[in-house]
Design brief:
Layout lengths: L4 H4 L1 E2 L1 H17 L3 H9 L3 E5 L2 E7 L1 H5 L7 E8 L9 E12 L1 E3 L2 E7 L12 E7 L5 E4 L15 E2 L3 H6 L4 H5 L7 E2 L6 E4 L1 H4 L5 H16 L6 H4 L6 E4 L15 E5 L5 E6 L29 H11 L7 E6 L17 E4 L4 E3 L4 H15 L5 E4 L6 E4 L4 E4 L1 H8 L3 E3 L2 E4 L1 E4 L10 H4 L4 H5 L6 E3 L14 H4 L1 H10 L3 E3 L4 H7 L16 H9 L2 H9 L4 E5 H4 L15 H8 L2 H5 L2 H5 L5 H5 L5 H17 L4 H9 L13 H18 L11 H16 L12 E4 L6 E9 L5 E10 L13 H4 L4 E5 L19 E6 L1
Parallel strand pairs: 11-23, 12-13, 12-27, 13-16, 16-19, 19-24, 24-25, 25-26, 26-27
Antiparallel strand pairs: 1-7, 2-3, 3-7, 4-5, 4-8, 5-15, 6-7, 8-9, 8-10, 14-15, 17-18, 20-21, 22-23, 28-29, 29-30, 30-32, 31-32
Helix pairs in contact: 2-3, 3-11, 8-10, 19-28, 21-25, 21-27, 25-26
Length: 790
Amino acid sequence: MPSTLADTLIHDPAETEALAAWCEDLLITSEDRFEAGRRIARQLGAHVDGDRVRFGFWTPELLDWKVAEADVFLEILRPRSPLDPTVAHAELDFDRALLPVRRCEAFTFTVVWGPIAGRREQGGDFYALVWRDSDGQMHRILDPLAMSLPYGAFAPAELYDAAAMQATRRDKGYFRALRGESPHKFGPPTSILQLHVPTATAGGTLASLTRHIERIAERVAQNLPLEPADELFMGYDAVQPLPVEPTTVYEAGPAFWHDEVREDGGLRVSLMRPNTTNWGYDVVIAGMATVNPVLLETARPDELVDLAAALHNFPGKPKMLILDLVFGHADNQGLGALNRHYFAGPNMYGQNIDYRNPFVRAILLEMQRRKVDFGADGVRVDGAQDFKWWDGRTQKLHHDDAYLQEMSDMVQTVAGTEYRPWFVFEDGRPWPEEDWELSSTYRAVIDSQRDDDVFQWGPLTFAHNTPFIYTFWLSKYWRIREILAHGQNWISGTANHDTLRRGTQVSPRLNINTRLGDTKMEILDKAYDNPAVALLTYAVFPGVPMDFLNAVARASWGFIRNQDDRYGVKVVAEEAISLKWQVDEYAYSMPGNFRHLKALGFETRDDLARFLDFLPALVDVTEYDLNTIATLLNAVEPPLAGPPSYSVGGLKAIARAWMDDMHEYCNLAHSLSSLDPHQTGFMRGLRDFRAANPWLRGNFGANDSFRYLEPIDGRTVFVAQRCGPSGQGVFAICHMEGGPTDEIMPLGLLPETERAAPWRLALRSPGIGSDYTGGPISLKDSMGLLFVRD
């Protein structure tokens, strides 16, 4: 008779008891519960040690529900036939074994010999904790600290050998070169490329992105010419993907893992490869220690290690990997993945996290440690102003700056090297108060942290910036003055995932700068990939410049999330204006574009535009009553295009189609053939210039100057001079908006004492002829010149 799964697994009662006793000792002898929690958290999740695996869970819900230890088990699941997690759908039978556990207060442990651990070349067993109720029904508690989640955060985890993943990484030499007597401290890069993995390459995965970077690296190593598409990645010494952790799943199903118990005690499991589209910020907190399976071509988390290695091994100079961590909130779906003790109540995003619970605090920090150990050199913390706690004594909310400090104090270990990553925080406090744009200093975290190289997003990098509206640059002049004085620890630049998204939501009826282009698409593209703005950012402003890949490639972008069932139609109504900004008739008509919407009856852009003209108004006037909205849409004369009859289900199908089509439309692959080599070459030249002049990161000094030309005369032209520590000089003139200037002598705008110096033209923006090397010139909107003195 063949052996069962239970026959291959051996529970180790002595080791299990030792773990529980160790936990109890820590709870008794530690300075406080947080200190105990931080040490216990290192043992939570699944830890592979040869044939032995230690499992640990934080399970306060079992105490809440008075569940006896005898009713709690470790569940091990093993497929009876080979499982390929990359296939779209599979129906498989799994063997199931239930093993005893030992509890210590709110923690549950067990040690088992014989489970199969996953690696790059093989799949592993799946596991969860289960408990039995009085009716004999089993309920799962999932592992939020899992290292592999092929079917997402709401399914059993795959047992994964993280040590084996680290042992085979290809950048061990990079980390070993940093080893010292104390942990290495990473400092800031000179510039950052922000990107969204699913739209950065045609493949849309981490593996596809890694191959693309390795291809560019090979061409650089062989001194081969680079195409404009390659230049998009050049000149940056850091890459920051949008969050790569697991996100929400389909609210209305289907589930990626659905199982039923077989008569023989095994499970029949319906498996669907995760295929959601998301911009990355709709997290559920569970699974934050690993990688979103949607981003994995092979379903192996090793792909994130591979990306780190490709960046670290880049020829000439290594590129840093910066991970974007979202711990400030959880989507409401998180309530289905974690116990209630993780949460402190609802907010505008979903749920606040209970940072004051010492064990939640410790587990979150442990999730961070494990994630950054994939090999990140830096960490960007999303929405740091949302890390708050309620003081019942004073009846006030307080920002948890102590937790932010604990985040940046974290010591990582990769290839035997201990290090502390560089940290940058997005923090717009007092946001969301109504006056936040006026009152935020963008320095709250910088001023409170111990390290002098902690960064924040600067005021022109935060969400609500619209550089295509007339007078934007003069209206922001007071913020620019702040950048000059305080910006050395700020991220600068106006093009990121948030600003570009906000730009597509602006009403075209506002006072739009039509000199940026002949169409709305051209205006939006040039506003966020503007030569004059880039010249200002890279050659004048202090701090660390950052660009968003979709912006510099002039690709589309928006709020991408196809999981919504309840509010999906409302989200599309809010995004409806983006059709005017990002899609013209020709783009809509292209074969393959907007195929889901076309299949629903919106055959032309005008068909869709007419529907989207009605939808936002009806969402507003009906207070989002879908039944009433459908009724009113059916009464429109002449009838709308689209489905034969509008219904609630039909509206939801349209919302899903919009999100899926926009996700495809935003992929960079569609924009590469139309790249302008003059533009990509100029922008790369600016990045190379910044890299060659790292002193520009510092604040303006006594000998530096910045002003706009007066009188205004219908245009905004900035003039700036910076003086380097070794006698270098930089002089820039940037036409930001408005009509053309009269003929001017750029170097004549310098102080008289500086004009005789040997200035030379280093860079000219596209639109200025290659024969121009100096002398009189009339500058138009978005033009700029950069002169240097060696």
